[in-house]
Amino acid sequence: MSGSTNVLVVDDDEVVRRSYQRSLQAAHCNVEAAFNGEDALQALQHKCFDVVLLDLRMPGMDGMSVLKAIKRSWPNSEVVVITGYPTVETAKEAVRLGAYDYLAKPVGPAEVINAASGAMTRKQWALRTEPSNTNATNHWAGASNLAS
Fold first, then answer.
1. Facing residues of 53 across strands?
2. For 119-141, what is each residue's pLDDT tens digit?
């Protein structure tokens, strides 16, 4: 990932927030943190975040409500749900609401970086524009050579 990747970490546990921040900063991301859902939505109003790492159980607004609000107002932000209380039901719901991924705590530094990197890759592909017809022919011809 690059220094231009903006990540918002949303978790009520300070140790978790700081751990994720350190891991992502080491991977050259710009990282900000929020204690709860309300703080997260306020941060999103002031800055565009590429990736949001979101806890489900927090004081006040729960993570699913925050996820809905993010996808409604900032659909280009990719969300990774990270929870200490994983269930099949919440995983399905999170994905249905548009989460890129759903991880169960504890999550190590490599997993945090990989999840954010995967979300960023998905965002880049989703925002990618169509190449011109001339370039498209050459691009896809090269891709087919790779597959053989």
1. 9, 80
2. 999 888 877 743 444 444 443 34
